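explain this chain.
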Amino acid sequence: MLKPSPIAQILLHFANVLVIAFFLLPIVAVTIGSLQSEKMLQADTQAILPAEWTFDNFLVILSGGEQRGKIFEQVTYLPDNVKSFHRAFANSVIVATSVTILTLVFGSLSAYTVARLRFGWTIWLMNLNVMARFVPIIVLMIPLYVTFRNFGMLNSLSGVIVALTGFLLPYAILMLAPYFATIPRELEDAARIDGCTHFSAFWRITLPLSAPGLASCGAIMFIISWHELLIPLILNSRAEFMTLPVVIASLVGDVHVFFNLMMAICLLAMLPSVILVLLLQRFVVQGLQVGGVKG
């Protein structure tokens, strides 16, 4: 393999820096905005760093509006949804965790069927799943709302979990099927000779060997469901069932936009995803590499 020239290496490192900056600069901007008052945020739009720093935005959010700090002492109106941050955070944890578990359970069973049996209809089903993903999700919101209303699943976390699982399950199958295909079939045959059933061989042999693929798929499913806005917004209208993305969107009012509170909630909402990726980083990279190269 030819070694890149020094100029090519410099250009490659420069491109990497640009890509990293592209993803980090918005986070840096949100962090700076969350650590200043709204008055300072709008006072000098050309300034990179504010003249004053404050944690009052986080104080208001974490206390549910009971402790306002200095910058909110004279404010007579705060959005009601700021008071429900803790409930919304818990709802997001319940929804994202449930969706991740369900997609991994049903997705692994379906992906294993596609990878091992190789029936003609499974290939057509996979192609149909890929084609269905080209349909904008907003087009399906009205029939989805009507269907869930008829089943009495509006204004409930179970309705959001079922809807998100249905939409994310094809992605899980597409990610896991190539990974299962890389595992030698002979290992399962040897387990069946030793007395394992087909499902037992899948449970004891295939799934443990697929841990990196399951970890990468689970992390992606969690992140997508954690940040999903449209489905919880359409299916739920009551504050006790709102998730964090819905609370953030509600801070954009008809008269006023609470930019500083919105930035602070965005930072707090990013923490579970960042922690999960850091914990599963090794498995995520390994799973994506194997699935992408050998799929």
User: Anything to note?
Assistant: Confidence is low (pLDDT under 50) at residues 291-295. DSSP finds 14 helices and no strands in the chain. The chain has two domains: 6-80, 83-294. The longest helix spans residues 85-117.
